Amino acid sequence: MKFRSFVIAAALGLATALAGCTAGGPLKVFTSDYGTVRDAGYQLPRIPINQVPRQYHRQIVTYDTKEKPGTIIVDTGAKFLYFVMEGGKAMRYGIGVGREGFEWAGTARVAMKREWPTWTPPAAMIGRQPELAKWRGGMPPGLKNPLGARALYLFNKGGDTGYRLHGTPEWASIGKAMSSGCIRMMNQDVIDLYNRTEIGAKVIVKR
């Protein structure tokens, strides 16, 4: 019996090691942090967070990974973004991801960070949605801007990936696949992530 117990324990340990990044239950949930926020002259409206599934509320979770603290890991399948912290923990945020045909995966770095960024729709997007041509020169910052309150710009060895981690006024899109490839976050969450993230931070996007 002792030998059998040892074999089972060893198998479980191997399975955990092979799993790579694994997340446990919440240690702290920040459901009360989605109220009205005054920021840089703008007033972000309260998010009716009770209408957002609880798993997508910002929370600290146990998280097993070999990546160093400060790394961002995006799980597009589960619709979670993890900011790796010390002590086997991570701050987990609910996200919206690219719709079918716009998914992507890979490793990048945060090359730039912008508060209340200007949004410039790519030429391909204007081709699909001609009504966006009026913003060819850039849509000014504001509460209706698709990039929301903050944006983190992702670059790799080839330069600008064109993808961003950014806020959105469309809080109901969190947990869904609706974007053109960028990772959407509730504005209150992207401000929190922005304040934690350093330029040069590693970003891993997994499908």
TrEMBL record:
Signal sequence coordinates: 1-19
An example Gene Ontology CC term for this record: extracellular region
KW Glycosyltransferase (keyword) present: yes
Domain L,D-TPase catalytic: 70-206
GO MF term set: glycosyltransferase activity; peptidoglycan L,D-transpeptidase activity
Pathway listed: Cell wall biogenesis; peptidoglycan biosynthesis
SUPFAM superfamilies assigned to the protein according to its UniProt record, in alphabetical order: L,D-transpeptidase catalytic domain-like
Active site, renumbered: 166 (proton donor/acceptor), 182 (nucleophile)
CDD domains: YkuD_like (cd16913)
UniProt cross-references to Pfam families, sorted A to Z: YkuD
Keywords carried by this UniProt record: Cell shape, Cell wall biogenesis/degradation, Glycosyltransferase, Hydrolase, Peptidoglycan synthesis, Signal, Transferase
GO biological process, one term: cell wall organization
PANTHER family: L,D-TRANSPEPTIDASE, L,D-TRANSPEPTIDASE ERFK_SRFK-RELATED
Family: Belongs to the YkuD family.
Protein name: ErfK/YbiS/YcfS/YnhG protein
Source organism: Nitratireductor pacificus pht-3B
Upper lineage: Bacteria, Pseudomonadati, Pseudomonadota, Alphaproteobacteria, Hyphomicrobiales
